[in-house]
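Dear Dr. H.,

I hope your travels went smoothly. While you were away I took the liberty of generating a structure for the chain from your last submission, since the lab meeting agenda had it listed for discussion. I wanted you to have the full record in hand beforehand rather than looking at slides cold. The sequence, exactly as received, is reproduced here:
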Amino acid sequence: MCAVDYNRPVRRNSSGSCSSVFVTAAAEGSEVNGRKERERIYGSHQAWLPKRRHRALDPLYCSQSAKSSISPSIRYSLHFLMQSGLSYSVMVFAGLEHMHKYCFIVTLGYLILCQITRVYVFDYGMYSADFTGPMMVITQKITSLAFEIHDGLTKREGQLTPSQKYLAISRMPSLLEYLSYNCNFMGILAGPTCSYNDYMAFIEGTGYQPRHQENANGKENGKYKQSEPSPKNDVISKLCTCAISLFIYLSLCKLLPVERSINDDFVNNTPFHLQVIYLYLAMLALRPKYYFVWTLADAINNAAGFGFNGYNKDGSPRWDLISNLRILDIEFATSFKLFLDNWNIQTALWLKRVCYERCPINPTAATFLLSAMWHGVYPGYYLTFLTGIVMTMAARAVRHNIRPYFLVSDSHKRIYDVITWACTQVAISYTVVPFVLLAVGPSFKFYRSWYFCLHLLCLLVVVALPVKSRRRQAKAQQDGLQKDSLQENQTEHNSTDNNCNQKDKAT
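The corresponding predicted structure, in token form, is as follows:
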């Protein structure tokens, strides 16, 4: 995408028009107004970010005075092909034992480099549809593919989890298959990410067969006659969801801006409990933007016939194989984990498969850090995900230590659900504020206005209510099973010895 440098004079050709077709008076006025608004929020100086693009980046991006006539579409395509080409070369020429690691470093590194240059080119805090969005999806696909090839060609089935067995790839994809998977038109802009095996089953026309034969009601030729599944109803439903989400977002985004939470007059003159309610409503008004994009992307894939995931108990087809969110589960989530599990589902699965299940040291922190690096280079992303680490640990401690006391009756369970729902919504809103504000100054201004209360509370909960990690619990359970098995074997052995001794005495 071309950038406009307003610090340079605009050259004009003989006809008097600007030499760059991308500069218009309306765009200039809009950009100046947008810049003033961002300076009001973020300040007029960012010490770590230069005001101008470095000259070394001129060959990569066209400026107002550049003579290059390369269209933005070609430049975007070059970035996609460069990232995909480098990664495929690593897959082909690197050894299978470490191929997935090298591919992960190259692919993610290229994405981060492009994100850094984009921040240098465009104004700080500017939301725009840029080429790094599709590259984020391609990064997920490439790294997932590398790990799946590694699992399929270097590991035995006993070393893989059930999901890894399903996703493992037993042969190297051809260049055509590889580029088709990465750059197919259905998911090139907004995803969602899908596994290579699911995509190839869709391309080869075998995606319906295994799921077509198994009915959720347990009757293969039962009450419901299953014909070729049609996505029509689901596509219409998802398009209606898109329309409602877009209407809500456009109606409320201007009325409930998140930036008001750091306004001095608002902070000084509004009671704290009303600030909490406002923050929740502001985040509630912001989420439909993501609902619209992800639901529309899901509907596009379904309309093409991709996303079939078996049948419901009533025999109706399910089209949620690559769905990216469950709106009701998000809005009524009663835990931090439940919210994250239903938000950006395919990205959460990618993080789980390439990081959480494979990282030997502190997988929770590593997963949140990888998520921050994947999202971009704004400091607000890192503040959000670092806060998310503490929130997750505290929520896990509360669930393991306090929740059992509320399971004694249904009434107690309902009270617990209401309390945890309110706490989850406030915690999510508090955590995500830097993700929206992007900059360090406004983010810390918000947290100072709240006296870092949730940070301190979570740290106190983690210290006061320690809990074993899930890996330790799984290992303890496995050790317990092994001990039980050894005891059973020892018991059987002793019983056999006793029987033999009795027979010897009888003889």
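Two observations you may find useful: The chain is about 65% helix and 0% strand. Residues 53 and 120 are 5 Å apart (CA to CA).

With kind regards,
E. W.
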